């Protein structure tokens, strides 16, 4: 059985909810990633911030990213998957919620992230086709 832990990208990092969006952008640059899980004061997942969120929902709206926190930008219920979950559950979670990045949790701690690139490296063509059709389907 292939698990989430088998296909995830290790080395994922949280950003605290109290950190500003400019700091999130700097961390994304330094880590060469497009998204960061947001952690509350108890290091529990409370959202995900993407580079697109910063541009579209902050900068393009005329807000100062040095004054807006990651927690203020967190919207909706964050999705995640347990590290020992089967890859079919990963696909179900990502397609069911039309998301492109999924934090991987083990013992209530972040251990990795699964992105489209991780799926492309580890899944067969039929699984990738189904993922793309469902995530990018028009509503």
Describe this structure in words.
The chain has 139 residues and is of the alpha/beta class. 39% of the residues lie in helices and 22% in strands. It is built from seven helices and seven strands. It has helices at residues 4-7, 21-31, 51-57, 70-73, 87-96, 116-122, 125-135, and strands at 9-10, 15-16, 35-39, 45-50, 81-82, 101-106, 109-115. The strands form two sheets. Strands 1-7-6-5 form a four-stranded mixed beta sheet. A three-stranded mixed beta sheet has the order 2-3-4. Strand 2, helix 2 and strand 3 (35-39) form a beta-alpha-beta unit. Helix 5 (87-96) runs parallel beside helix 7 (125-135). The longest helix is centred in the N-terminal third of the chain and has 11 residues, at 21-31. It is globular. The N and C termini lie far apart (33 Å).
């Amino acid at each position: 059985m292939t698990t989430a832990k088998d296909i995830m990208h290790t080395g994922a990092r949280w950003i605290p909810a109290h950190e500003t969006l400019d700091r999130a952008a700097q961390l994304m640059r330094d880590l060469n990633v497009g998204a960061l899980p947001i952690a509350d004061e108890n290091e529990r997942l409370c959202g995900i911030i993407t580079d697109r969120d910063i541009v579209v929902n902050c900068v393009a709206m005329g807000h100062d990213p040095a004054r807006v926190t990651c927690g203020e930008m967190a919207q909706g219920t964050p999705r995640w998957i347990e590290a020992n979950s089967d890859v079919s559950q990963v696909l179900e979670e990502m397609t069911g919620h039309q998301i492109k990045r999924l934090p991987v949790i083990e013992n209530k701690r972040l251990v990795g992230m699964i992105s489209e690139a991780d799926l492309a490296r580890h899944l067969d063509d039929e699984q990738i086709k189904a993922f793309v059709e469902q995530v990018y389907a028009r509503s």
